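so the lab meeting is tmrw and i was supposed to have these ready like two days ago... anyway. pasting both below. for each one the top line is the aa sequence and the line under it is the structure tokens. i havent really looked at them closely yet so no promises
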Amino acid sequence: MTNLNDFRAHGHQLIDWVADYFENIEAYPVQSQVAPGDILQQLPPAAPALGENFDTIFSDFQKIILPGITHWQHPGWHGYFTANNSYPSVLAELLTAALGAQCMSWSTSPAATELEQRVMEWLRDITGLPSHFSGVIQDTASTATLVSLLTARESKTNFAINTGGFKNQPSFTIYCSGQAHSSIERAVKIAGFGRDSLRKIAVDSKFAMLPGALEEAIISDLSSGLVPLAVTAAIGTTGSTAVDPLKEIGLICQKHNLWLHVDAAWAGSAMLLPDLRHMIEGVEMADSYVFNPHKWMFTNFDASAYFVADKAALIRTFEILPEYLKTKEGDRVNNYRDWGIQLGRRFRALKLWFVIRSYGVDALRQIIGNHIGWAADFEHWVQEDAQWELLAPAPLATVCFRYNPHHITDEVALTNLNQQLLESVNRSGKIFISHTTLGAKYTLRMVVGQTHTQQHHVAQAWEVIKEAAEKLK
């Protein structure tokens, strides 16, 4: 497919296939049913010397690749967190690919820069974040967390580590809850602090960070000659979607002069609902904040919204200006290459713009509110059935539970039982759920939040889970 006429014809063919895929997605098993190596053995060991025609390639896509896809856009997707797309987002991604813009600076595509600036202002305002926050699109929350810790490191040392490395620097400590995402620990390693510098703070019965335990750890480290640097608070932990008490944590950070990063990767989209913004009370004390529209705001991966209180510190941490990057616009524009790790940047703002304008804020709120309500229904069903246990509060749209028909206390036996249940449910192909461990208990997780999930899909999921459980008795 090397000429425009072929491109046009096959482009129409693919759009039709994509539309059919969305229309018929419930016919696919949610989780891929292939075994390890099944795909690999169908792929030739050497690349083709001569070009192949599109029909052959697309046929192989359908025969070889598609069976090995787990369908995250299936309305029966209830595992991990969602990684949603939507019709306007997919179309915008097509335009992004066609334009092929490398949006590292204003001059390389002024519209990309200025649209990103405006869309990030929209996101800030519609989710109730402080007006002094400045935003930039990162690829993932993992990257945003690393960017945050690097900025904290440089701000604390007056940017000395960027110049001379860690020589003559104190030993820093970083804090998060024991339920925080693994990306925190990864960022601590990459940023050069070392894993031993990370303090995982105890949590309460709702799996939220204990502020008293945080302050005790800070004081202990200070007395040992260490230098507390930063705290990451979670709004919606990965395991149970626990909400750390942000205001109390913020006051402790202010008291001890610590950087405060807020990880709201999944739950941040729910802040579209004003009634839920009590979860981020105290966010005005944060130095940085991240949430992922690619999780629960119907914008396909990747698009992570990262906000900072002091954009000058962020830019100074990452800015490098060789001659070939100098432009005449200077400080009159944002050059987002200096707002994060990557020099090259995709035009991610376009799909966010399409999504927000296509749905409108009111409809986005309605859909997320529906998801939360349907998850509450599922939580109620678990609580009402004596064979099941609710293992954590469900403040949003993730329900943590397990099967315990005989009310046994043998955790090994319960783990084995629920592992079998998870495997059976997912092997059915009807729905997909995931698991975690909470308080040493093997825990099933039911997430409601896929773009096309409706109330009857949630009811169906409960029936699938119960039917699989009955077969294990």
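ok protien two:
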Amino acid sequence: MKKVNYLFILFAVISASIVLFISLQSANKEEVSREIGMKAGKFYVAKEILPDHSLYPLLMVVDRIRLELSDSERRTYLMVAYNNRRLFYSKRLLEKGNLGLAFITLSKANKYINQALEESIVLLEKSSINKKQDYQVLGFFVLENLDKHLSFMAEHKNQFVNADQAVLDNLSVESLSLADKLRRLMSQSN
């Protein structure tokens, strides 16, 4: 397992170096392209890397690798964390006026919370007696974060066009259905 971790770290460092080099090159090209009126990708220095940043794809690759290398319980916690991060990104993108990317990011957040709900359901359905309590704690954690997610959606959904609102509503209905199923399983486990 340690060998896999070292390989992962080496891969991440090499990938980050390549992406940073390419980003710096594209930042230089952006300055030149502004002078001739062409639009280029965005490279900026900030505490967080938003989806409109040129390094964001690297962050997504790292997220995907972390998910793939995790067991089901850890993966569920990661999906909740990714949901929360994307809610934050959506808010920042809305503040910047980038509604299209904010919608995509918010819908991806919803897909992550739905996956976390599904994973919690599967874990509870297949759990042994000694793991049931751990998975119930995980279920409560996911449901608590779902409540935050749905509050965020309700607060910000009116900023999107009707078609996007309909998509967000459908994702929310799916979330509520999964949450009901998870709550039923949790109550049966008591």
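from a quick look at the 2nd one: The chain has a mean pLDDT of 84. The first helix runs from residue 2 to 36. will dig more after coffe
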